[in-house]
Amino acid sequence: MENITVLGAGSWGTALAQILAENGHHTLVWTHREEQANEINQFHTNQKYLPNIELPGNLTATSNLEEAVLHGDTLVVAVPTKAIREVCETMSSSLRNKKVFVHVSKGIEPNSLMRISEILKESLSPDVIEDIVVLSGPSHAEEVVLHHPTTITAACSNLKSAEKVQDLFMNHYFRVYTNDDVVGVELGGALKNVIALAAGISDGLNYGDNAKAALITRGLAEITRLGVKMGGNPFTFAGLTGMGDLIATCTSVHSRNWRAGNMLGKGMKLDEVLGNIGMVVEGVRTTKAAYQLSQKYDVPMPLTTALYEILFNEKEPKVAVDELMIRMKKREIDLY
After folding, report:
1. pTM for this prediction
2. Which of 158, 180, 202 is the last residue of a domain?
3. Of the residues 180, 201, 231, which one is the last residue of a structural domain?
4. 216: Cα separation from own chain's centroid
């Protein structure tokens, strides 16, 4: 059994910590809110993020980042994308030896256009990184904590490290596969949030199943176009971290991105939507980054571009849909 620290006590970080604790590992969760750490330690609950769920008694929490970092031989980074640099800079002085970093957030940093593994490599000294593994796939925390069957992928260029993470997490309800395509896994996990926002908008406009099916399939086409151009394996995008995650996020009320899009489709403004959700909606920042990537790599991404116009230039959703439908005709299978 290992000492493992989960950095971040949101819904997903807490669900992963529950898996690790149930698997017998000495698991410590870090949160920047002392009252949240106290709740986990005293009541074994995290009501804000996972209401009515009792957490394992051997799962503990702290609001002291140095204590958290010193505890874990493996560090699971489960904070939102926008907080990763700050957390890395803060914990750097506490890192004494090499550790395996497992990141589970799904995003791309706007402007720098870095994937999360690249942010970690830039923000941390190479002297403290044994390896970086991506853990990603179709996995709503609300279902994982109920032990509903879930499958996910651990990706690393060094398959031995991916297999180590596979062993840490895998159990009778949480099945982990391995993959060496880090680029494809990270891009699939991040970009599906863009399409999920669009799917929510479609549902908010009451456009029905035909439109959503089109969004998912054409969304996958443009994710794959960009991913292959950036070095990803095309088969990855047909797997758990591509099509699998896309289906789960575009069709479930558990998805914050779908819920945010649904409100936008019903006429709410972005600031109002984000205030209403009350948690990070990764797809908003990722839409900006995805739009910038499409320009950088000269890859046509019409759905992403339309969503960018809705989010950041206040284009009316119905107008954006109408413009998508009357674009110049083309073949369906065009990789580039």
Report:
1. 0.93
2. 180
3. 180
4. 17
Q: Which range marks the domain in which residue 192 is found?
A: 187-325
Residue with tokens 């720098």: 112
Residue 318 bears catalytic tag = no
- How many Cα atoms occupy the beta-carbon half-sphere of 91 within 13 Å? 32
CB 133 within 8 A of CB 168: no
Mean pLDDT of the chain: 94
Torsion of CA 191, 194, 196, 199, to 10 degrees: -130
pLDDT score of 134: 98
**From the candidates 106, 164, 192, 288, which is the catalytic residue?**
192
Mark residue 52 as left, alpha or beta (left: phi above 0; alpha: psi -120 to 50; beta: remaining). left
Going through the chain in order, the beta strands assigned E by DSSP cover: 3-7, 26-30, 60-62, 74-77, 99-103, 129-136, 150-155, 174-179
What percent of the chain is modeled with pLDDT above 90? Answer: 88
Domain shared by 176 and 254, yes or no? no
Residue 27 has which token pair?
A: 């698991």
User: What does DSSP say about strands 129-136 and 174-179: parallel, antiparallel, or unpaired?
Assistant: unpaired
Residue-wise pLDDT tens digits, 95-127:
989 999 999 999 999 999 999 999 999 999 999
- Sequence-distant (6+) residues with CB within 8 A of 260 are 197, 200, 273, 274, 277, 281, 283, 284
CA neighbor of 7 nearest in space, from 91, 90, 78, 105: 78
Domain-located, residue 333: no
CATH of the domain at 206: 1.10.1040.10
**Residue 26: CATH number of its domain:** 3.40.50.720
Domain co-membership, 193 together with 240 = yes
CA nearest neighbour of 302 among 281, 320, 282, 283: 320
Report how far residue 54's alpha carbon sits from residue 271's, in angstroms, rounded to the nearest whole number: 33
The domain tally of the chain equals: 2
Residues 47, 151 within the same domain = yes
Residues 96 and 244 both lie in one domain = no
